[in-house]
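Quick one, T. Sequence first:
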Amino acid sequence: MPHLRIEYSRGLEGRADIPALCRTLHRAMNEAGIFPQAGIRIRAYAADHAIVADGLPENDFAALTLIVGAGRSKDALARAGQQIMAAAEAALARPLATPHFALSLEIRVADPDLSWKNTPIHARLSGKG
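Structure tokens:
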């Protein structure tokens, strides 16, 4: 883990390059320096149905949720969050330049006692597999 989930309104696909956004955020997570590359996952999902704010059809959103494992300081997570948010803002500059877009990022820390993993990718990327 860290796993970044991007939920967005379907209309955003016409105003932003979602695959490029994923690549940009992947790069930002790597550059943050606190996440193991083998654990990074980026998933983007369009909401099939959404009503945003006052319900105007031109309203769109992107809600980013980053779930990380325990053990990083709040300050380190805040710095990484600022870096990831800045990357998202740059990638989504076009919709952010309108009054019909909402962007958010939340970081959640997973409870290690309630999180299970079986990930051979870690061994491969660390040279142990």
